[in-house]
Amino acid sequence: MRFNNILPELYVIDFKKSLNFYTDILGFKLEYERQNPLFAFLSYQGSQLMIQQEDEDEVWHNGTPEYPFGRGINFQIETDNVQKIVDSLAKNNYPLKRGVKDSWYKVKKTLHGCREILVMDPSGYLLRFSQGLGIRG
User: Contact at 8 Å (CB) between 69 and 10?
Assistant: First the structure.
């Protein structure tokens, strides 16, 4: 397995609930897990992240962790089908933070389009799933 050059590790409030959210609802693949501490390495269409049960180890924290975790950051995750995620979230009565939105971002002289949703995971991390819509000149 090749590991991405940047690989976020998210401390979570309820490991079992978070693992279920990522694997059963969003469709991430469980690559491997450990039991002590509770930890999982997950992948999704080329994206990778790790989740671990919150603990008292101050080395890995910049302050007192409190909900919602991840304030001030969102993780953009590329997907080939935003609607599939929307449907799975709805089926599981899991709310979107922002519904489907088509956005066009200027990069030099071209516009890059993406269809996006925002969803907050059970620990409060903001996830932005993005499906490419092409380029405009």
Answer: yes
Alpha-helical runs (H) found in 1-137:
15-20, 82-91
Q: Which two tokens stand for residue 95?
A: 């709310």
Q: Are the C-beta atoms of 95 and 89 separated by less than 8 Å?
A: yes
Give 1 or 121, the one with higher predicted confidence.
121
pLDDT value of residue 14: 95
Phi-psi region of 35 (alpha: psi -120 to 50; beta: other; left: phi over 0): alpha
Residue 71 CB coordination number (10 Å): 10
Distance CA 94, CA 88 (A): 8
Q: Which amino acid is at 6?
A: I
Sketch the domain layout of the chain as residue ranges. 9-56+74-136
- Using alpha carbons, list the distances in angstroms from residue 12 to 40, 50, 70, 82, 134: 11, 10, 10, 24, 35
pTM across the whole model: 0.91
CATH of domain 9-56+74-136: 3.10.180.10
